[in-house]
């Protein structure tokens, strides 16, 4: 069976004063129906831009380069006209964003905004859209949903607004949900509730989820697969259990070493030395080599391809070839 | 809401009173008085001038003059014009009001209608060639003095091309029995040049406000979120973005509302438009105290009313203001 979403060699460029920037530079992955894929990386690695590209929402003057391919159920998303594109946005792929405080329009009520999304894809009356909005608010676990219908966004808490965003994204029963750092702006306790909610909805609807995050902590035990992104590329990809058991790329190892653990002896966190390079001037060879504790001489000159390191486990690192991973 | 409205209205009333007092004092501090000019025009004995001074009460101490003015104003009597004696100030103002309303209303409608449309267009096509040229053109017009542009337009369309009338509001040679349609057409023809002049010089402000406000909103997350859920682009632009980019423009409209009545002194002078602007200008020249005071009070009331209406509009448009 073909995967629901396939991304092949996605490249996005931005013209800048200091030459062309390549924030996403050859990313390929796929998401199966009902699967939860986590796309993990530091800020600036290109993960959010990748998620925006899936709906063709790369902000101008950014451009998706020819040769890139995005296929939803076999349909070439990059070749669609405006109306066909609209039938994917929200209808087949829903999206929620990092900051629920700014993602809702301040001058419309909750019922207005959910109802608008319902009516953008289905021919129903305003009354029916309102009824559907109520159903959705119930589904995302908002207390007193009837009262919340006519409330404005500023009258709700961040967690409640993110639930509303999810309700809006679910309005047209999409096959896939993109969640771009959905809990970053929220309190820790609220984070857990939102993640629980997403888990539950995915199970109930058999919806695929692409979870974009910088936090490996929320990935464990939740994602089916993890793809680690660094400097505009995927550097490692594996099933979640496999990745946590045998992290292979030095960058992934570094990320895991910098996550605080609640169990076990208290140890110092090990940060990764240096910072992410600028997308206008990626380092030659392997992009991680200037920061890599295990770099080989050839890493400075030769760019490693994606190499297998195990069952459905691949990484872009010469260590895979040397068998030292 | 009621408390806020009451407080806001009281504020406006207090400001109005303070402004009126200031106007009264400032006016008397300017050199010259109405009779000096009157006496300069013709041979008059000193006794006659003094008698007239006494008649109009200008020989009284300023405090006495002020209290009698306030007493009259509270009873709805703004006094009598000195220049156009014995016409009442209120009669003069009312006779000029329709012309001012017509010109001011037309200009506000044109300025905000065209300005908003072009500003939105510029924001959508930001940094395009059209955007840059509209900026240059509108700022060039903005930099022109209105009376100068008025003279140029009057010379070109009125004198050179003989297309449009350059003065007054009616054609004096028009058959008085002409049909309603003909008379309306005549007024509209007279309206074109002053209205175009005033619109041209004020258009840039609305365009800039609208362009900047919309560009700021278009960058916000909820616009991206609306696109991401497949809302049609036209709806994203007008319903989501423009609705939020309207606030600064509404503020500007409140600020400019006085234009509706006071018009522009310069442009009314250039085109001999029989509005309040030229009435005020003539009154200042003649030191016609009651008329100056009457028109100035009307303008200050308009300014305050504009601010109040803009606040009310915010209240209606923005749920966050409503709750605060």
Tell me about this structure.
The complex is a heterodimer of chains A (325) and B (324). Chain A is α/β, with parallel strands linked by helices. Chain A has 2 domains: 3-92 and 174-321, P-loop containing nucleotide triphosphate hydrolases (Rossmann fold, 3-Layer(aba) Sandwich); 106-173, no CATH class. Helices cover 28% and strands 23% of the residues of chain A. In chain A, the strands form 2 sheets. Chain A has an 8-stranded mixed beta sheet, with helices on both faces. In chain A, strands 1, 2, 4, 5 and 6 form a 5-stranded antiparallel beta sheet that branches. In chain A, a hairpin with a 2-residue loop joins strand 10 (225-230) and strand 11 (233-239). Chain A is globular and about 65 Å long. Helices cover 77% and strands 0% of the residues of chain B. Chain B has helices at 2-29, 34-41, 46-56, 62-74, 89-124, 129-143, 146-160, 180-218, 221-228, 233-244, 247-256, 259-262, 265-270, 276-286, 289-317, 319-323. By secondary structure, chain B is mainly α. Chain B folds into 2 domains: 2-74, no CATH class; 95-323, MetI-like (MetI-like fold, Orthogonal Bundle). The interface between A and B is medium-sized, with 32 and 22 residues.
CATH topology of the largest domain in chain A: Rossmann fold
- What is the CATH H-level superfamily of the largest domain in chain B? MetI-like
| Total count of strands of chain A | 13
Share in helix of chain A:
25-40%
Radius of gyration of chain B over alpha carbons?
24 Å
Radius of gyration of chain A: 21 Å
By CATH, the superfamily of the largest domain in chain A comes out as P-loop containing nucleotide triphosphate hydrolases
Could you state the order of secondary-structure elements of chain B as H and E? HHHHHHHHHHHHHHHH
Largest interface: A-B, 32 and 22 residues
Strand content of chain A: 15-25%
Low-confidence stretches of chain B: none
| CATH architecture descriptor text of the largest domain in chain A | 3-Layer(aba) Sandwich
Second rung of CATH, namely the architecture of the largest domain in chain B: Orthogonal Bundle
Q: Estimate what percentage of residues of chain B fall within beta strands.
A: under 5%
- What is the number of helical segments of chain B per DSSP (H or I, 4+ residues)? 16
